Amino acid sequence: MLLLVLVAMSAPLAEDPIAASLARIDALQGYRLTLRSQGNGGEEVIRYSYQRPGYVRMDMETPYRGAVLIYRPDTGRVQLWPFGAPGRRAGLSLRPTNRLVRSSRGHRVDQSDVGTLLRNVQQVQRHGTARVLEPTELDGRPAQHVVVEAEPGRAVREVVRYDLWLDDETLFPLRVVSYDRRGERLESVRLENIDLDPDFPPDHFAP
Questions:
Q1: What are the φ/ψ torsions at residue 202 (nearest 5 degrees)?
Q2: How far is CA 142 from CA 63, 134, 168, 185, in A?
Q3: Which of 206, 200, 202, 207 shows the shortest CA–CA distance to 50?
Q4: Cα of 162 vs its chain's centroid, Å
Q5: Going from the N-terminus, what domains does the chain have, and what CATH number goes with each?
Q6: 3-state class of 126 per DSSP?
Q7: Do 174 and 139 form a contact (C-beta atoms < 8 A)?
Q8: pLDDT digit of tens for each residue in the chain (207 aa)?
Q9: pTM attached to this predicted model
Q10: Cα dist. 86→30, 32, 64, 174 in Å?
Q11: Maximum distance among all alpha carbons in the chain?
Q12: Could you tell me which residues are beta bridge partners of residue 33?
């Protein structure tokens, strides 16, 4: 019995923690959270909502407080309300590639969901390694710290390393930090106030 306990304690939490996290997220119908991103362009704070098969809503807190973006996969367009919530006035209809609706690092609204983020991490993992460090806590929540690092000479969109902190129970990312080949931080993203499979109002993603 003691031997079985020791084996269980020393076994990896997941054979592939990134694939396990992605599988959990792919099983969700949607989620909402507060996203805090820090990079060379400063800080962005967004109240973010996602619903399958790809509906996205961003309510901006910083730097463009009050702006609202909604992406609908059925139209392939982003509706932008620069100064207020939808329903009060007509929004601008833009392509996802328009610079007005891209982040300071060039991220597109239609490629902003957590599943896409993890698939980007997997691209680095395919050309390198993933390892789980000692159990830790983030904001008082038990978490798995996973490091994904490309082999020398490899990079995916400048990124050669990701540090991820996954919620120990849900495997949902709580924080993701990316680094370039010089070891300099490209971006740090914190995901807070996470609500999985919420009941969105019927007009939450309406244009």
A1: -55, -30
A2: 31, 11, 5, 24
A3: 200
A4: 12
A5: 14-196 (2.50.20.10)
A6: helix
A7: yes
A8: 333 333 333 334 458 999 999 999 999 999 999 999 998 778 899 999 999 999 999 999 988 898 999 999 999 999 999 877 666 566 789 999 999 888 777 789 999 999 999 999 999 999 899 999 989 999 889 999 999 999 988 888 899 999 999 999 999 999 999 999 999 999 999 999 999 999 999 999 987
A9: 0.87
A10: 21, 18, 15, 29
A11: 67
A12: 48
CB neighbour class for 74 (10 Å; exposed up to 12, middle 13-18, buried from 19): exposed
Are 127 and 110 in contact by the 8 Å Cβ rule? The answer is no
Q: Strands, DSSP E only, in 73-184?
A: 77-81, 92-94, 128-132, 136-138, 141-150, 161-167, 173-179
Selection from 180, 90, 97, 170 nearest residue 138 by Cα:
170
String of DSSP letters for 66-84: T-EEEEETTTTEEEEETTS
